[in-house]
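We treat protein structure as text, and this decision shapes the records that our systems exchange. Because each token names a local backbone shape, the row as a whole describes the fold. An entry from our holdings is shown next, in its original layout:
>
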Amino acid sequence: PTHQYACVECGKRLTTRAALTQHRARAHAADSRKQECPHCQKSFVLPSELKKHIQRVHLNTQKSTTTSLARLDDLPEIEDIF
């Protein structure tokens, strides 16, 4: 694939505009926009990444399931973050 989109901050080249946007959010976001995991204080820029982290690390799930999502939604501190 042709790498058409270059990051102006680091020069990394990506194949889609969406990939570039996601790269910039993950790699170059300001610390003030990052959200900490309430269990271990690891920081994430994207709420979806924080949610996946909690499911995999703190709820011990490998894949997103209806059961694990229901358990995650029951945690009040998570609802406040999103």
The chain has a mean pLDDT of 78. Helices lie at 17-28, 47-58, 66-73, 76-81.
